Amino acid sequence: MKDELPDNQPTAETRNATPLPRHPSLIPVARLVAPPPPFHMAASPLAAAMLKPCPRPWGLWTTLGWSLLGLLLELIVTLVLILIAGVVAGLTGSAAMNSAESLKAFTMSGLFVSVSSVVMLPVGFAYLVLITHLRGWRPAEYLALNRSTARQTVFWLAVMAAYMVISDTVTILLGRDVVPPFMVDVCKTAGFMPLLVLAVVLVAPLFEEVVFRGFMYRGIAASRLGPAGAISIATILWSLLHVQYDSYGIAYILVCGVLLGLARYGTGSVVPPILMHMLNNAGATAQALVKLADSA
């Protein structure tokens, strides 16, 4: 007599058949909201690493402390460059650094600004990589060096372009010069113009945004101050670095810093602020070169 399987036992046909996929709406809610399994239940070390939560960013005061230490590092690099320039001037018999006034003029020259910016870039990035690694983060992730969408990038570039046009229009209506005297002096003393363009248009925006809207924003935004506090503090500190401008120029920079911070917040990336900063500096440099050519 042929053996019969119980009703609850699968046959060969049903065992080999491919089950139909369930609709996502039929997945039990408990599976959607259930926490991940404990780390010791991971199938492999790679899976365990993927499940490991990312450590918290540096706190508010630690972030400010690291930033202050970075400023001290930049000051040391600047002093070393001045010392080297002084030795070279002494060996060549140049009178460019014989007095306090000549020394100030040299440090504000386009050539020194260019060289110091280019030299500080690798030093500063090495410093940022170190302090982000100390916190257990990947530097690119901590500094928000991730891609943004093309639509977001174009939008924020358009915002910056509109702000530049509006600002120049208001400046002209107020009877003020669109080009700050500092930019004209920098172009006059550039020494090697391609190096100045590289430093002002590419190097300075990249480094400053990674510091202020990358590292500094990350730590302050994760504190009780939140993104609004991060935008405000980063903007104020960034503006204080531009002491070479008058109060009107500082006001322009403050508004510019707020826009850069909003772009960082809105996109979750520091790339749009970098491109916006580059656009602004490129416009200012072009205006300064045109004015310098007209006055020649």
Name the descriptors.
296 residues, mainly alpha, 13 helices, 71% helix, globular
Overview of this protein structure:
This protein has 296 residues and is mainly α. The protein is 71% helix and 0% strand. It contains 13 helices and no strands. The protein has helices at 12-16, 29-33, 45-51, 60-92, 100-107, 110-134, 139-142, 150-173, 181-188, 193-221, 226-240, 247-267, 271-295.
Mean pLDDT: 84
Structural class determined from secondary elements? mainly alpha
Instruction: Give the SSE string.
Output: HHHHHHHHHHHHH
Specify Rg, calculated over alpha carbons.
28 Å
Low-confidence stretches: 12-44
Which percent range describes the beta-strand content? Answer: under 5%
Tally of contiguous helical segments: 13
Amino- and carboxy-terminal Cα gap: 113 Å
Count of spatially separate domains: 1
Biggest β-sheet description: none
How many beta-strand elements? Answer: 0
Portion in helices = over 70%
Backbone shape: globular
